[in-house]
Structures are given as structure tokens and as C-alpha cells.
């Protein structure tokens, strides 16, 4: 039985394919279209999924879509009629709903197959139920509390519940216009970061400020006695005027969500090119603190309600790795699972798992403890890409490559690392990574000079051999998907200047020999040479989606000042 899972006509569009309960492949459309957060129908992702399995759309038995136009329908209609003044917003919603209900027609059109020959049943799964399924049913937990929290999906922003075995129960949800994600997005726009998905920049900026304005944000997010929250709607435009979200040519764009009342209370918003003042940094710190306060408010009530110590989380707000790193400190949960794609991309997997477990009653799949579910490439394809550009290369053994990388890192080299299948999710996890020596004080400058050219306040992350976490970090945990920020021990700050943020933290990835042996062995070679079981890891890209193909990796190498490129056992050097 083949199940094709889709996140479609939404930011981070994606597709995945299951065969008899085994995940064969999962990939985001942005990796293929080369447009960050690509939104629309993920036809290229579907094509890659079918190619991986060696099948056609006619062989698919079920299609699951992480959007249900019927969910909260009465509330949608009532709210739109009562509050929305923009006809364009109403038309946009109706148009997108119609597209979601015509999946088979779109498949027929894109794959040149008569619609009558597509036997698959289409199942629309509510957005947040898809998020919940993407984390609980992929987790190693038999029983856990579940939180889905993001901007909006199917007219809600937050859903809480608990799962056991192959079923979960939804306790409650927060309905539009109230949303922690909407708050964080509006404030991100207020600070002059206008790109879709720029919220991580606020999280990176926050440690440069003091949370001295939390009292102002307590008037924006109102925590309620039932363990949930409301927004003070005066600070936002989306609830009264409506805010248009568009994706022309796949580029997602959302209008500014903050109101004039927010400007009245916080002051004029920062324009994109304006200097970031200390006031902006302090506001960022305060907004982050208030977000954490709201998340822990929800989690503590959820923990008391369920009595459970294990937690599964997903949704865009769950990508707030700073908050995630404090869950053990601020709640009674003692084990947390978050999938590699907690973003909306992950709802493709979630919708498929919801149908497989909740509706078909099938047994749970093996836990998803890895992230490399993307596209794979052969040595022949790598060699063809190199020869097409007349690039000289060497072929070396794994041990030779690991020794070369260790030597180059110590000498200040910047390494492109392209191995196995690409990651599913927003983080580079040792399959499509750029590496540097975390002990060098100039590593951040080298990376930004040679490749990244990004804001100086944004930190770089450490990948650490899992058995050494307690030596370097104040908390110990398996952080497989770089989903948590922990404090680095004070005595290690000077040893790891390139990956220690201004507040002494690091967004770590723990590397297991069982899960990613090639990446582990390379870091181990660096450890044997330097005594440091850590490398600096950042995504293999230059202001673009993470590279997917050998040709894209080579192109990034050639147009930047990267020193060495490793693609499987092929070595390219300046």
C-alpha cells in the first residue's frame, strides 16, 4: 500500500511516500525549485517520490493532504463575515480551498495521466492533527503529551492532546485570530525582518538585549486560566482587516500584521535597512521571553492535565530552539521528541501517519530518529557534474577524507560536506553541511567572508559526538535535529568561540555513530587530532535553499571561497 502525503498550497510545500508503513522518501519543494519556503502544489517533490519507488501516480493507493477546508468551517465563515473588510482575503481563501479539493485533477494535469486512471482516495487531514501525528507517531514514545503550535492552519494556531499506542486524543485548541506564531511573525516584521520565515533572526538577536520590556508584551499575549492564551487584538491587523498571504511564482509573502496600536505602544517600526539599536535588541529579548512564558504556561498545564513526563511537539513555534532548550528546566517533562521537520513541511508525513494510524488502525512505524529522507545521488551522477564543469577531483577512502578534513579545519579551511541523502527539514545535519573549526576566533568571520554574508548577530551551531555532551553543555540530551539550545559550560566558552553565542549558549546537534556514521567518523578524526569532539556546522548554501544535487553543491563551491568540497568520496580542492 502506497500513501502519498502532501503539504500543498502553503509555505514549505512538501511530499513524502510511505510503502506498507515504511517511509521511503520525504522532500521539500524548496530544495527542488530553489526558492526558500516554496508554496504551491509540490509537483517536483511528488515526481522525486515516485522515482524513488519506481512507480507512477496510478500506483498510489491513498493521498493525504495536511489541510481540511471543512475544519472549523462555521467559525471561518462567521469570522470572515463579521470582521473581514477585504474582499481579496475572502477570495484568496475560497481559491485555496478549491485547489485543495482538486488534488487528483492537479496530479492528472502535472503527470499527464487521465484523472480516471488515478485510483487513489484523497483524505484531507486537519492541519494541527497532521502536526500532532508528525511528532507522536514518529516518536519512540508509547505514550506522551502532544503540543502543536504555529501561526495558523485550518483556522487554529494551537492544539493540545495526548497519545497512546496508535491513537491520540485532542483536548483543546486555540482558534483564529489568537496565535503565538502570529505574534512572533508580527513582531519579526516590526523589527524590519520582512521575509517569510525570518522569525529565527529575532531569536538570534534576542541574546544581545535585556528582557526589560516583558511587561509591555504581557498586554499583547494574555495567558488564560485554562492553560491557553489569547491575543490582545488591538495590536494586530489580521483579525479585523485581514492580512493577505500570497505566493506568486512560489515565493510566499505575508503582509505586515502589526497595527498602528502596536506602533503607538512600542514606537515606530524599524525599516529593513535601518540600524538595529539597543532598544530593538531589548524588545527582541522581551518578545522571546514572553514567547517562552506562553509556551511553558501551556506545557505546565498540559503536563498537570495528563500526568505524563514525555512530550511530543511540532509546529512553526516549536522551531524556537531557545524555548525548547528550557523545557526540562521550566516544566516537569523529562523527555521531548520533535521531528526533523516540525515546520509545515513535516505535515506531509503527519497527514500520512494520521491516516495510517488513526484511521486505518495500523501499528506504529519505527521511530524516525534520522533526517536523511531526501534525494540520493550516485557516484556516476557526482562524476558527471564534475566533468561537466571541467573540475579536477580526486577519489579517496573514507579514512583519507576524514584525515584531510581534520587537517584542513585546523588550518582554517571551510569545508563543503555532501553525503548520502539530503535532510528533510530546515536544518543541515551532516548530509548537506558546511564545516569549520569551532575553536577558531575568526571562524565566524571566515564563514561570512567566504560564503554566508549574513547578519553578524546570527550564531553558528556545534555538532558534537553524543557521548561528549556532558563535558561541554550544562544539560545532557539527545538533540538529533538541532532542535534545542543549551548553555555551554563557562569554562568551555573560550575553547569554542565560534559556536558560543553571546549569552553562552549553543544550538547543538548530537551525532550518533549508529545514525550518521560518516559524519560521526569525520568528527571523531577531528577529535583525535585536536581533542575537540565538535565541529562548527552550518547549512550548505549561500542565501538560497540548502543544496540538494551534486551540481548545486559544486556551483556553491565555485562561486564562493570555500576551500574544500567533499561529495561522497570525491575531493575537490582550490
Structure, described:
The chain has 574 residues and is of the alpha/beta class. The protein folds into three domains: 2-128, Nucleotidyltransferase, domain 5 (2-Layer Sandwich), CATH 3.30.420; 139-338, 2-Layer Sandwich (Nucleotidyltransferase, domain 5); 379-573, DHBP synthase, CATH 3.90.870.20. It is built from 20 helices and 23 strands. The strands form five sheets. It has a nine-stranded mixed β-sheet with strand order 15-23-22-16-17-21-18-20-19, with helices on both faces. It has a five-stranded mixed β-sheet with strand order 3-2-1-4-5, with helices on both faces. β9 (221-223) and β10 form a beta hairpin. α6 packs across α14 (347-359) and α16 packs across α19 (517-530). The radius of gyration is 23 Å and the shape is globular.
Amino acid at each position: 500500500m502506497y500513501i502519498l502525503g502532501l503539504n500543498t498550497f502553503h509555505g514549505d510545500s512538501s511530499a513524502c511516500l510511505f510503502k506498507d508503513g515504511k517511509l521511503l522518501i520525504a522532500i521539500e519543494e524548496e530544495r527542488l525549485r530553489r526558492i526558500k519556503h516554496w508554496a504551491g502544489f509540490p509537483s517536483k517533490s511528488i515526481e522525486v517520490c515516485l522515482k524513488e519507488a519506481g512507480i507512477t501516480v496510478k500506483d498510489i493507493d491513498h493521498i493525504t493532504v495536511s489541510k481540511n477546508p471543512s475544519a472549523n468551517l462555521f467559525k471561518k465563515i462567521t469570522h470572515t463575515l463579521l470582521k473581514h473588510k477585504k474582499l481579496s482575503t475572502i477570495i484568496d481563501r475560497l481559491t485555496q480551498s478549491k485547489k485543495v479539493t482538486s488534488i487528483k485533477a492537479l496530479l492528472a494535469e502535472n503527470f499527464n495521466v487521465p484523472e480516471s486512471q488515478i485510483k487513489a482516495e484523497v483524505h484531507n487531514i486537519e492541519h494541527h492533527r497532521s502536526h500532532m501525528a508528525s511528532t507522536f507517531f514518529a516518536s519512540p514514545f508509547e505514550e506522551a503529551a502532544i503540543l502543536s503550535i504555529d501561526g495558523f492552519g485550518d483556522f487554529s494556531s494551537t492544539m493540545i492532546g495526548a497519545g497512546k499506542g496508535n491513537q491520540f486524543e485532542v483536548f483543546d485548541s486555540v482558534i483564529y485570530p489568537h496565535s503565538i506564531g502570529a505574534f512572533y511573525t508580527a513582531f519579526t516584521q516590526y523589527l524590519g525582518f520582512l521575509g517569510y520565515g525570518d522569525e529565527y533572526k529575532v531569536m538570534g538577536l534576542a541574546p544581545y538585549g535585556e528582557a526589560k520590556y516583558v511587561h509591555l508584551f504581557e498586554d499583547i499575549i494574555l495567558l488564560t486560566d485554562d492553560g491557553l492564551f489569547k491575543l490582545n487584538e488591538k495590536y494586530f491587523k489580521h483579525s479585523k482587516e485581514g492580512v493577505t498571504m500570497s505566493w506568486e511564482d512560489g515565493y510566499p509573502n505575508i503582509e505586515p500584521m502589526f497595527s498602528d496600536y502596536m506602533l503607538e505602544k512600542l514606537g515606530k517600526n524599524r525599516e529593513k535597512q535601518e540600524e538595529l539599536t539597543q532598544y530593538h535588541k531589548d524588545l527582541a529579548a522581551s518578545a522571546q521571553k514572553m514567547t517562552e512564558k506562553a509556551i511553558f504556561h501551556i506545557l505546565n498545564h498540559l503536563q498537570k492535565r495528563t500526568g505524563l513526563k514525555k512530550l511530543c511537539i511540532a509546529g512553526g513555534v516549536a522551531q524556537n530552539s531557545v524555548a525548547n532548550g528550557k523545557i526540562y528546566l521550566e516544566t516537569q517533562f523529562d523527555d521531548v521528541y520533535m521531528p526533523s521537520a516540525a515546520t509545515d513541511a513535516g505535515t506531509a508525513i503527519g497527514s500520512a501517519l494520521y491516516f495510517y494510524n488513526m484511521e486505518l488502525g495500523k501499528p506504529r512505524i519505527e521511530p524516525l530518529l534520522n533526517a536523511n529522507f531526501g534525494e540520493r545521488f550516485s557516484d556516476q551522477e557526482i562524476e558527471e557534474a564534475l566533468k561537466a564543469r571541467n573540475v579536477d577531483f580526486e577519489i579517496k577512502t573514507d579514512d583519507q577524507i576524514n584525515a584531510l578534513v581534520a587537517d584542513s579545519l585546523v588550518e582554517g579551511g571551510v569545508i563543503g560536506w555532501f553525503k548520502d541523502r539530503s535532510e528533510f527539514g530546515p536544518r543541515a545535519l551532516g548530509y548537506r553541511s558546511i564545516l569549520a573549526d569551532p575553536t577558531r576566533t575568526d571562524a565566524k568571520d571566515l564563514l561570512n567572508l567566504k560564503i554566508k554574508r549574513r547578519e553578524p548577530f546570527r550564531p553558528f551551531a556545534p555538532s558534537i559526538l553524543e557521548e561528549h555532551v556532558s563535558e561541554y553543555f550544562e544539560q545532557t540530551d539527545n538533540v538529533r535535529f538541532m532542535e534545542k539550545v543549551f548553555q555551554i559550560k563557562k569554562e568551555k566558552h573560550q575553547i569554542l568561540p565560534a559556536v558560543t553565542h553571546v549569552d553562552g549558549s549553543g544550538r547543538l546537534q548530537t551525532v550518533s555513530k549508529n545514525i550518521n556514521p560518516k559524519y560521526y567518523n569525520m568528527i571523531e578524526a577531528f577529535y583525535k587530532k585536536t581533542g575537540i569532539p565538535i565541529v562548527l556546522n552550518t547549512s550548505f548554501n549561500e542565501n538560497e535553499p540548502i543544496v540538494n544535487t551534486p551540481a548545486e553543491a559544486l556551483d556553491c563551491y565555485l562561486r564562493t571561497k570555500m576551500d574544500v568540497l567533499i561529495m561522497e568520496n570525491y575531493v575537490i580542492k582550490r
